[in-house]
Amino acid sequence: MMNTAEFDDEGFLINLDSWDEKLATQIAKNENITLSPAHLEIIHTLRTFYREHEVALANRPFVKLIKNTYGPDKGNSIYLMTLFPESPAKIAAKIAGLPKPANCL
What we know:
Layout: H1 21-30, H2 37-53, H3 59-70, H4 77-83, H5 88-95
């Protein structure tokens, strides 16, 4: 990695304060994702929620947060799967530098 960030054995950032967009770009690249403004919008929303509640959201509450924040066009599983394939909550949390959400395999 480019900076001195440390990761757990699943690739989740250990120290949330070492996160920045440059690191997010690198983590996303490792997941075969090229970050766009649409990705960053979701990532910053997750980081804000985490700072306020200290919870990394699993899929259902993650979709609900995005729906409540941006409306039904973005707050749905299909849209989020296009941005973060396979497991949107898990991949978005990883790129956002957050802990792995509970109930995410």
